[in-house]
Amino acid sequence: MKWLFLFISIVCCLHARAADFYMTPDSSLVDAVRKARELRRTGQATAVTIHLAEGVYRLSEPLRLRPEDSGLTIEGNHAVVSGGMEVGTWRREGKMLVADVPDCNGRPVDFRQLWIGNGTADATAVPTWVKGIRARDVDDFEQMHRIVAYDKKNRVLWVPRKAVEKILKAPYPEMVLHEMWCTSNLRIKSIKVQGDSAAICFHDPEARLQFEHPWPSPMTRDTGHPSPFYLTNTRELTDRPGEWYYDTREHRLYYMPIDGGNGGGHGRGRAVVPVVETLVELVGTPERPVRNITVRGVTFSHTTWMRPSEKGHVPLQAGMYLIEAYKLRPQIDRPNNHKLDNQGWIGRADAAVELQWTENVNFEDCRFEHLGGSGLDYVVGCRGGSVTRCTFTDIAMNGFVCGAFSTEGLETHLPYQPTDFREVCTGQVVSDCHFYDVTNEDWGCVAICAGYVSGINIEHNTIHDISYTAISLGWGWNRDLVCMRDNRVHANLIYNYAQHMYDCAGIYTLGNQPGTMISENVVRDIAKPSYVHDPDHWFYLYTDEGSSNITLRDNWTPEEKFLKNANGPGNIWENNGPQVSGEIKDRAGIRKN
């Protein structure tokens, strides 16, 4: 391990001592954080900056920052914090390149993503990574097969026989099923061919969840828009350049190179697989939060999220997965709200960086990319903190996440008003960030996903090329007064959204949010996939169930295609549409200086 501890400087006017550590990629980030902690504990320094030199800092477990690390700054100079492991040497087997995947940290690994590097001649340089395609039955999603029938009672999904003929003997095939505003990842248990159709059954728990939960639900032929699906995770489907399959029994990786050569289509053919789900965790307590942390100029890369491989993934909305859900008979009467026909309890996916019980934790000029879960998540009990000039790209699920989405013990339609308001994420700022190619695996996720939050400010971001909604604000499907208030969505530029899912909007809200303002945003250029459940059910602005006490003003859209669904009182709509001034339109998005 190499340590370069250069100096401790004295800032006399503040009576503070500042220490600077200069790190190289073969140094330990865990040891650096601990050394900084000890300097503060012993009074040798009050503020410590860890400088990361250019290169890749690999982790096999999350880096944890605690209340004792308050005051720390981490600065990167083209530094990448990675949860990836480079695979071994490729060998040729027919059209395939094959590599044996070694154990990591004492055990076999499994993963759902693969990135191929540009293969620079310098083995120490950071490659430009290109995401491989997990083997699937279609190259063009417009060519996806459609379901034939949906048997809830027997928990059987019927599909065309020709869709499954290649995978009848595959050990671990999966289905990705399109359902209105979500996609489900379903592990296939059995396939039985009958005539020109095939009956598919799935493993539990996703089989139970899939057929018991009413919303969202797949569409059948009688609707005129039967739900599409694609099949994945079999060697038999690895038949197009860029596709890969991992044999978990043999720990063997198969990849079909793009150019057909030994280099994997990208120079020397370097490849990395993710071995962790979360890179950095900041965890305090209500009484002792993690305070005043700044991360600047660092790239966070190469994570996975393994729940779909282990338990499937059946979301309710925005990637929040169902733990239990079922239809109600009779329905529940809810004062001040319409009757409720279902119950559901949810969990949330892991993110590359997660914060719990923090104050003023900031990310500046960082990149969140090549991630198999979500990007950055202010989970619970976070006060303040800004995310500025950051880039979020090549992310499987949500980009930025903030606030509660019904805690695990709270039924998701019940109002969330915690006795201890410290639980509520309050005062976060997301500004001048760039979101694109986010939600590229879970199509029902969003770029910016804020749940039960207060005083959040989402401004001057540019968001494009995403699968569903761009900004989702609020939660609960309930108009009762909860902990949400005084939120702001201002001057964001949104385009090329809804590339796979409808029942969407550029900006979407839920719940009662007194004092919330949505202003001077630009939303345009929605995608037009042919396979959505209802080709007309898309919007530029969408106030959904329970949305109350929200002002929407001076938002530019090409036409007044808005939806106000089961709203509560107090919403104000003023001057939204193509008549909004050009000056407002031109100011939207990332600021130039």
Quick structural overview:
The chain is built from five helices and 50 strands.
List keywords for this structure.
593 residues, mainly beta, 29-stranded mixed sheet, 5 helices, 6% helix
Shape call: globular
Q: Tell me the radius of gyration.
A: 24 Å
Low-confidence stretches: 1-15, 263-268
Protein structure class? mainly beta
Put simply, the count of helices is: 5
Major beta-sheet overview: 29 strands, mixed
From the N-terminal CA to the C-terminal CA, the straight-line distance is 40 Å
Strand fraction: 35-45%
Mean pLDDT: 94
Q: Helical content, roughly?
A: under 10%
E-strand count: 50
Commentary on this structure:
- The chain has 593 residues and is mainly β.
- Helix content is 6%, strand content 44%.
- The protein has a 29-stranded mixed sheet that branches. Strands 13-19-16-17-18-15-14 form a seven-stranded antiparallel sheet.
- The radius of gyration is 24 Å and the shape is globular.
- The model is unreliable at 1-15 and 263-268 (pLDDT under 50).
